[in-house]
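Re-run requested by the PI after the first attempt was lost when the workstation crashed. Everything re-entered from the original request form. Ligand of interest: glutathione.
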Amino acid sequence: MEPVLFYGVPQGCSFGSIVALEWQGQPYRLCRIEMMEHPWDALYAKVNPLFQTPALLPEDGEPLAESLAILQHLAARDLETRLGFEQGSREFDRLNQMLAYLNTDFFSSFNPLWWLYETQGLSGVEQEVLRRLGREKVAEGCAYLDGLLAEREWLLGDERSMADAYFVGIARWAEYHRLFDLKSDYPNLARHLAKLRDDPAVQFAEAIERGEQPKGKGHFRGHVTLKELESRLAPEALSA
Ligand SMILES: N[C@@H](CCC(=O)N[C@@H](CS)C(=O)NCC(=O)O)C(=O)O
């Protein structure tokens, strides 16, 4: 079976991995995880014992977790798409640096806001602290990225890369949490987000998240359930 990406909804950071798969245009399948439905199926521990999405089950290997690792894995299997670069090259280092920034500093700046969103029974003061902290940290990230995008067409320069695929899945959270007027506060970032939103792969990923059945470029071979993957997750299958 084709590689399977486990993606989480709603508003998962796996969004970027779906965009990357569409940009690459090779056959793949998806397995949907409803992140708010706790507890998750215990079988998912075989995919990722941390119970997080995304994860990728390659055609012939063990599941791979962590967005950065997944995006670099996808890039490396098809360097001709130029979404990633050969290890050891200057471009590889720049992509890795950008992905690491987005995946650590920028991603985690939203943590207080997700905490606020998911936690019941917080006092008014606690809510205010989380919102202020999140807003401040996200503002730092947006200002940094806005500055970079003032001089660049894409995050790394003239061409799109895995960094842009990942960026759209995270930067959209600033709108989701209604933190700023992005267009006036961070116009370059807002422009980049809008450009990506016009991309068919991004629209495909949005439709997937909404639970629709988009066509995409035709490389998406449909959803599979975790249960249907059970035999591929068995220890014998993984060590074969
Ligand atoms: N470092 C991991 C973080 C993954 C992560 O936090 N995923 C979130 C969704 S964005 C998740 O699965 N959360 C589990 C939950 O909400 O229970 C990565 O970058 O892939």
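Saved to the shared folder this time. The mean pLDDT is 96.
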